[in-house]
Design goal:
alpha+beta, seven-stranded antiparallel sheet
């Protein structure tokens, strides 16, 4: 037979008063206030003046890459071949492995606007933030208003189908 579980007494169940009669630890502690910090930026500027930067597109991933002494760096680390870990080299508008395998790795452009052209960011809000911070020009499609109401949920379709199957006519 199990013993009934007893509830442990908490300090907040008691109220203490100081010598003047004021509550010392009220049962309802004050709620924490949010900091008045400014909202975080969606994108922080990474491209600095005087440095050589480009855009690399490979395996449906688009990255800003920095070129230092002829080597490609992504996120502060040297980019290497995904097959043999050899160094990468730029040949025109493409990147190849300079190691054993010599395999094609992806496309390359010194035009930083290629980041948006190659869909490095899919969200319109993020695309605008990146363009503003990095000084890029938005694609023509980013300036066009959306002419349709987005389908926010698949459940809307399900709702319409279930109403039709039940014989509900909401046109009345």
């Amino acid at each position: 037979m199990k013993k009934p579980h007893t509830v442990q007494t908490r300090l907040t169940d008691f109220e203490e008063r100081d010598s003047s009669g004021k509550k010392v630890n009220p049962s309802n502690p004050p709620k924490y206030r949010r900091d008045k910090r400014p909202p975080a930026k969606l994108w922080r500027n990474i491209i600095k003046d005087g440095e050589v930067w480009g855009v690399f597109e490979g395996d449906d991933t688009v990255l800003f890459v920095q070129i230092l002494d002829g080597k490609i760096y992504a996120h502060g680390r040297e980019a290497v071949c995904k097959y043999c870990s050899g160094t990468l080299e730029i040949r025109g508008s493409q990147i190849f492995c300079a190691g054993e395998c010599g395999v094609y790795q992806g496309n390359f452009s010194y035009d930083l606007n290629a980041y948006l052209k190659w869909d490095g960011a899919k969200s319109l809000t993020l695309r605008k933030a990146i363009a503003k911070e990095e000084g890029l020009s938005l694609e023509e499609r980013d300036h066009e208003p959306i002419h349709y109401t987005p389908q926010w949920s698949v459940l809307y379709e399900f709702e319409e189908e279930s109403d039709a199957s039940l014989g509900i006519d909401d046109t009345e």
